Amino acid sequence: MPARTYGQYCGFARALEAVGERWALLVIRDLLVGPKRFGELQRGLPGIPSNILTTRLKELEESGVVERRLLDRSSAVVYALTDAGLALEDAVLTLGRWGAKRLGDPRPDEVVTEDSIAAALMTTFRPKNAGRRHVTFEVHVGEIVVHAEVRNGAVTVGRGPAEKPDAIISAGPQLRLLMAREVTPAQAIGQRMVSVEGGIEYLDMFAQMFQI
Question: How would you list the strands of the sheet with 167-171, edge to edge?
């Protein structure tokens, strides 16, 4: 029985019964980046109590959205999205894109995580602007490092540095201004909001491909 029901014979109500509890969509967001152990999920969601994370994972498993897997034939257990969970990708990215337009400046108690930045790159990617280019970006936001490989109009993101990046982009929260096209790449560099290794042409390319 779902933790919460709405008494309506409606697909949207069914979806909320499965994934509408607090923290559930953030768990799904992080698992879209890749399977994770319990501790990795908890570190990526620093505000979630361990008992709440346990409950959300149990509910998502019961809903057929998440499953447990053994990691690399070892005894380590990771949580991963099922096919039904992966089918939520478009909905999660659309919701993230909608929310990105309402971010504003960070609140004093807000943090960024590897998965939130990786998900932001997935959310803001514009396939039409990428064309058939093949380029790999390594993105540093403070101490956080993620990467995005663009190939033939699709993007693959991951945590940590890229093996062979074409460009390394370093910034703070001001990166949002570039992605929102509130500043140009030249202005972002001139005002020291962003730095880039590899040439400003790659920052121009990044700003075209990733837009809020």
Answer: 154-159, 144-151, 134-141, 167-171, 194-197
Q: How many CA atoms lie within 13 A of 116 on its CB side?
A: 16
Residue 151 CA: distances (Å) to CA of 132, 137, 164, 170: 6, 11, 14, 22
The pLDDT assigned to 1 comes to 44
Instruction: Give the number of C-alpha atoms closer than 13 A to the C-alpha of residue 88, restricted to the C-beta side.
Output: 28
Q: What is the distance between the terminal CA atoms of the chain, rounded to a whole angstrom?
A: 38
212's tokens: 């809020």
β-strands 167-171, 134-141 pairing:
parallel
Please tell me the distance from the alpha carbon of residue 33 to that of residue 98, in angstroms, as a whole number.
19
DSSP symbols for 98-141: HHHTT--SPPTT----HHHHHHHHHHHB-HHHHTT-EEEEEEEE
What SS3 state is found at 63?
coil
Residue among 91, 92, 196, 208 at smallest CA distance from 150: 208
**Mean pLDDT over each residue of the chain, to the nearest integer:** 93
| 79/74 Cα distance (integer angstroms) | 14
The reported pTM is 0.87
Contacts of 185 (CB under 8 A, 6+ apart): 178, 194, 200, 203, 204, 206, 207
Lowest mean pLDDT among 67-81, 133-147, 148-162, 194-208: 67-81
